[in-house]
Design goal:
With 269 residues, the protein is an alpha/beta fold. It folds into two domains: 25-152, 3-Layer(aba) Sandwich (Glutaredoxin), CATH 3.40.30; 165-263, no CATH class. 55% of the residues lie in helices and 9% in strands. It is built from eleven helices and five strands, in the order αββαβαββαααααααα. Strand 1 (29-32) and strand 2 form a beta hairpin. Helix 6 packs across helix 8 and helix 7 crosses helix 8. It starts with a helix and ends in a 6-residue tail after the last helix.
């Protein structure tokens, strides 16, 4: 009888601990910020001031680049675990069996940014380290560019875009500062070795996709100007984009190859 009682007590205690941990992870603390609402759990409470500094800096970079404020308020969810992030993506993308790859730590669409707690990247992710503050800020800014872009686009979550993945992602790479000297050098080397995709649609593929897509948007920004780049945010297909620029894919790729990557000055860092 005593053994049964002890076993029952241990079972109840274990269930309470597990239930309490689940509640900690599932219960969101909400803070209203300037232009967005921040959601996090008690597991990230001690780091939230540090995280908010990144969000504020990233938001400012985006608004400075586009010369305007975000159109709508949005939400930022700091997920305490990969399972929490996967759960959000499974629901949003209607993919109940989806499991994220290790390099996936964040996503941005018109109404929200989902991100794994940055200080957990070293243990829950690959290719990302929170201690690299420059890359951390640029990654967060990258996703905030998607939020801004989504608020302007015909397809707020980019699920209905045709032939412009290179522009959607390249814009985020360029505006966030991820199109740095390292990526420029990699693209230059690929050009010299004739390892460039034949169409823009294939630029957002392979190991060089960030550099390729980012430098094309950099080229368009230098050639057509920031106002013209901003005018493209509404479009969800390549035809509209090309018609607005009054150019062709062939002309863009030739101009990009011959001038922007070869001559542009890139800030170090």
């Amino acid at each position: 009888m005593k053994k049964q009682t002890l076993f029952l007590l241990l079972t109840v205690l274990l269930s309470t601990i597990l239930f309490g941990w689940t509640n900690v992870e599932d219960k969101w603390i909400v803070e209203k910020q300037n232009g967005y609402s921040l959601y996090y759990t008690t597991l990230d409470k001690q780091d939230i001031v540090e995280y908010k500094a990144y969000f504020v800096a990233g938001k400012k970079t985006v608004e400075d680049f586009f010369q305007n404020s975000f159109k709508n308020d949005f939400s930022i969810y700091i997920h305490p675990s990969r399972s929490s992030l996967d759960s959000a993506w499974q629901k949003d993308w209607n993919m109940p069996d989806f499991k994220s790859q290790c390099w996936m730590v964040a996503s941005g669409v018109s109404n929200k940014l989902d991100i794994i707690s940055p200080k957990k990247w070293d243990s829950l992710a690959c290719e990302h380290s929170y201690s690299d503050s420059i890359k951390t800020l640029r990654l967060i800014t990258h996703e905030l560019v998607h939020v801004y872009h989504g608020q302007q686009n015909k397809s707020p979550d980019f699920s209905d875009v045709t032939g412009i993945d290179w522009f959607v992602e390249g814009l985020a790479v360029y505006a966030s500062g991820q199109c740095d000297s390292v990526r420029i050098s990699e693209v230059k080397k690929a050009i010299s070795e004739n390892r460039i995709p034949e169409t823009l649609d294939k630029f957002w593929t392979g190991n060089l996709k960030y550099g390729l897509s980012g430098t094309v948007v950099l080229y368009l920004d230098k050639k057509f100007g920031r106002e013209q780049i901003i005018s493209l945010l509404n479009f969800n297909n390549i035809e509209e984009l090309l018609n607005t620029l009054n150019t062709t894919e062939f002309e863009i790729m030739n101009g990009w190859r011959d001038t922007s990557v070869q001559n542009v000055e890139i800030k170090k860092g």
